[in-house]
Amino acid sequence: MAAPLALTATPAQAITSCTVNGSPVSGTTVNGTVGSDYISCGTLAPGDSVNGLGSSDYIVINGIVAGTIDGGAGGDSITANAGTAATGRILGGADNDFISVGPNAGTVDGGLGADYCRVASGNPPINC
User: Fold this and answer.
1) CB 16 within 8 A of CB 48
2) Each residue's pLDDT expressed in tens, for the chain with a length of 128 residues
3) Contacts of 24 (CB under 8 A, 6+ apart)
4) In terms of pTM, does the model score above 0.70?
5) Is the dihedral of CA 104, 59, 18, 91 positive or negative?
6) From the CA atom positions of the chain, what is the Rg in Å?
7) Nearest to 17 by CA among 53, 55, 50
């Protein structure tokens, strides 16, 4: 009698699907441009990141944030109404940012500048 075959699976890296200025983009890292951007994504998986880069960006995450959002330099608007997981990080970056988050189990950090941050519940924001 043959011994049973043991199968091992390597977990697949999550891929975030977004639109950047109306064009579909997917991958573990989604970047805006050096100019102002509109970035919209579904759920942001652990290890994945969305980077606004320069200028004033408008970033909307429609699912849970378990990865990292970094608005970068410029007055950014970041919205994540579904909230963050414990691994989720939302970083405003330099300049005056507006950040609105649902339940926050992770980190919301306005960064440098006069930032307005609102979390519905959970961990309070910092540098706001």
Assistant:
1) yes
2) 444 444 444 344 567 899 999 999 999 999 999 999 999 999 999 999 999 998 999 999 999 999 999 999 999 999 999 999 999 999 999 999 999 999 999 999 999 999 999 999 999 999 99
3) 17, 18
4) yes
5) negative
6) 17
7) 50
